[in-house]
Amino acid sequence: MSNALNDEDREEQTATGGVDTDAGGVTTSGESEEEVHDEWTDYEFDGEAKLSVTDLDVWYGDDHALKGVSMDIPENSVTALIGPSGCGKSTFLRCLNRMNDRIKAARIDGSVELEGTEIYDANANLVELRKRVGMVFQSPNPFPKSIRENISYGPRKHGDIEKGLLARLFGRDDTDEEADLVERSLKQAALWEEVSDRLDDNALGLSGGQQQRLCIARCLAVDPEVILMDEPASALDPIATSKIEDLVETLAEEYTVVIVTHNMQQAARISDQTAVFLTGGELVEFDDTDKIFENPESQRVEDYITGKFG
Ligand SMILES: Nc1ncnc2c1ncn2[C@@H]1O[C@H](COP(=O)(O)OP(=O)(O)OP(=O)(O)O)[C@@H](O)[C@H]1O
Ligand SMILES: [Mg+2]
User: Fold this and answer.
1) Pocket of ligand 1 contains residue 88 by CB under 6 Å
2) Is there a contact between 1 and 86 (Cβ–Cβ < 8 Å)?
């Protein structure tokens, strides 16, 4: 964590009023003695919650990276996660499909339910979970294979398509199904027009923006319900970024999208609701995006959004 205080130090400093603050009672990293009110994160919405997170804590060794985060994420919408570097956005996102399980130092406590079923249950099927809750990372990471194989790899692994010699021998050749799936996924990711005549070319020959849309197509190919995106456009130029933004808005008609972004305008443009995390791993406010950007409850959120720190 960017600040090296442990909980005891922090409690002691708060008790003695010892936190250094600049004008407005907020430090440059957004810490203050402002109390977080439960109702600031108690977001009420119509429709169902796709994901329900309750009292989620994450530690990396002794670092307490996320503190008691609770939030309900509505289905078929875009939820933006914003906040200064190191506040735990990626950590939170990775908790939603148990990607943090892969980090040895990480310890997680709390509950995450996907449509009412606990994903941290000891019997949870992780392959199935990550099929239902897909992820797109900050840097595009296509496999060093053809464009076609990048798309069909996941469905083949899950046994949804079978092709090749063995499949032909057993009379289960799904080559046509594969072609349909590749076309559909690439169209959904707004990439088909650009690559339809070179599906057998290596995916690493695509531009950065095309690679990122390929990764989104790869994620869509396994038919997920939730798509987690960690700053998917931060390495892209403005034109490629706006393609990804348009795409995210379209995806929300069918999928539940949770996106981390450092770009406030992007969050304001594409999301339906916004969650603001601040330094120390706290979720401070979660509400309709318009409300967060126009009239937040928390002074620290207002300071962050207006660029006073972070
Ligand atoms: N694999 C890890 N091992 C140890 N500590 C980690 C690990 N990943 C994250 N952390 C720590 O947890 C805290 C939250 O990190 P996280 O990456 O979730 O922040 P973030 O909000 O995504 O930041 P950024 O905006 O810079 O991506 C930081 O203090 C970070 O150093
Ligand atoms: Mg991050």
Assistant:
1) yes
2) yes
Domain-located, residue 268: yes
CA of 262 to the centre of ligand 2 (A): 9
Q: Is residue 15 part of a domain?
A: no
Q: Distance (Å, rounded) from C-alpha 80 to C-alpha 261?
A: 7
Q: Which of 45, 37, 42 is nearest to 53 (CA)?
A: 42
Q: What is the number of domains present in the chain?
A: 1
Domain, as residue range, for 234: 46-305
Question: For the stretch 11-20, what's the b/e string if a residue is b when 16 or more beta carbons lie within 10 angstroms of its beta carbon?
Answer: eeeeeeeeee
Pick the atom of ligand 1 nearest to 262's CA: 25
Q: What is the pTM of this model?
A: 0.87
Residue 1 banded pLDDT, cuts 50, 70, 90: very low
Q: List beta partners, residue 274.
A: 80, 287
Digit-coded pLDDT (tens) for 61-89: 999 999 999 999 999 999 999 999 999 99
pLDDT at 208: 93
Name the closest-CA residue to atom 9, ligand 1.
91
Distance from residue 87's CA to the centre of ligand 1 (Å): 7
Mean pLDDT rounded to a whole number for the chain:
88
Give me ligand 2 centre to Cα 160, in Å.
32
Identify the nearest ligand to the CA of 263 by its number.
1
Assess if residue 88 is contained within a domain.
Answer: yes
Task: Kindly report the CATH number assigned to the domain that includes residue 224.
Answer: 3.40.50.300
Decide if 4 is inside a domain.
no
Query: Which ligand number lies closest to the CA of residue 1?
Result: 1
